[in-house]
Design a protein that fits this description.
By secondary structure, the chain is an alpha+beta fold. The protein contains five helices and six strands, in the order H-H-E-E-E-E-H-H-E-E-H. The protein has helices at residues 2-5, 17-20, 62-71, 80-83, 94-102, and strands at residues 21-24, 29-32, 37-38, 46-47, 85-86, 89-90.
């Protein structure tokens, strides 16, 4: 995944990725933008104003809904399994993790 290969990507939220990376459909991978505003202290990284897609998920689709909540709030996930681990504790579902994350 992008966050496994790129240290800068690990600092980004899911919604920020399109500003710095483009999707190469033939290679099925993200590539850094080649033009735009250079990012301070990040050589070779460029930012451009973009519009990305972030699909909506109905709350009735529990796991998908809570996964989406985590993706928009947790920077740099490297895998679904890694996303379920907080403070060394592996949560069984994204729903359980989300409730702990928001403190309910």
């Amino acid at each position: 995944t992008l966050c496994q290969k790129d240290p800068f990507a690990k600092t980004l939220l899911y919604s920020e990725v399109p500003s710095y990376y483009t999707w190469n459909a033939s290679r099925k991978s993200f590539e850094g933008r080649k033009r735009g505003e250079p990012v301070e202290e990040q050589p070779g990284i460029f930012k451009e104003t973009t519009i990305g897609r972030l699909y909506t998920v109905h709350p009735n689709q529990d796991e998908c809904f809570f996964l989406r909540m985590l993706l928009v709030n947790v920077p740099g996930p490297t895998s679904f399994q890694q996303l379920k681990i907080v403070d060394g504790v592996t949560h069984a579902t994204f729903r359980m993790l989300s409730f702990e994350f928001i403190g309910e």
